[in-house]
Amino acid sequence: MDFGNPLEEEKTLIAWKAPERLHKIRGKEFYTTVGAFVFLLSIITLFFKEILLMITIWAFAFVSIAMSKTQPEILDYAITTRGLKIGKNKYRWSGLARFWLEEKLEKVVLYIDTFRSFPGRLALILDKPDRDKIKAILVKKIPYDKPEDTFVDKAGKWISEKIPLEEPAKV
Fold first, then answer.
1. Which of 31, 70, 96, 105 is at 20 to 30 A from 168, Cα to Cα?
2. Which DSSP string do the residues of the chain spell out, in sequence order?
3. What is each CA distance from 98 to 40, 121, 161, in whole angstroms?
4. Which residues contact 29 (CB under 8 A, 6 or more apart)?
């Protein structure tokens, strides 16, 4: 692979602005359902005297509600001759393992696995028109390889299908 000459000036191949994470505006039904689940799980954990687990459940619920109420920040993204820039962070080509694309919440998400322990995976929101252009640039530098779904991925999808926290949007 050609990683470019580190002595040459860094050039931007493509740049875009996008939210830092996916965001979905939730309705009253979502918060009511989350509250009911948290209350039920709290009673069960209290019965078994698992206070730490109960605190963890409440913390997870708080973070979920806070993130659904907070709009994501708009970041500058760029793919350069030396790697990837996300806001003020830089990731060299040699630190990126593989990438793949998925559609979630009617947006295209670019996932990039890194060799770092943190962050192990980057998730970037793309505009649909830029999808093919970005894929063409990245495939020259790192492999396009979507990993198999793990047990946790499959279980999460199954639970979200069987126990929805809100009614699906009606068209």
1. 70
2. -----TTSPP-EEEEEEEESS------HHHHHHHHHHHHHHHHHHHHTT-HHHHHHHHHHHHHHHHHHHSPPPEEEEEEESSEEEETTEEEEGGGEEEEEEEEETTEEEEEEEESSSTTSEEEEEE-GGGHHHHHHHHTTTS-B-PPPP-HHHHHHHHHHHHS-SSPPPP-
3. 41, 10, 29
4. 165, 166, 167
Q: Encoding tokens for residue 137?
A: 């640039």
- Say what angle helices 28-47 and 51-69 make with each other, to 10 degrees: 170
Pairing between β-strand 96-104 and β-strand 89-92 as defined by DSSP bridges = unpaired
Residue of 79, 88, 74 lying closest to 19 (CA atoms): 74
Q: Which two tokens stand for residue 133?
A: 């252009």
- Read off the pLDDT of residues 116-127 as tens digits, 9 standing for 90 and up: 989 999 999 997
Sign of CA dihedral 148, 153, 159, 162: negative
pTM to 2 decimal places: 0.83
pLDDT in tens, 45-85: 999 999 999 999 999 999 999 999 999 999 999 999 999 99
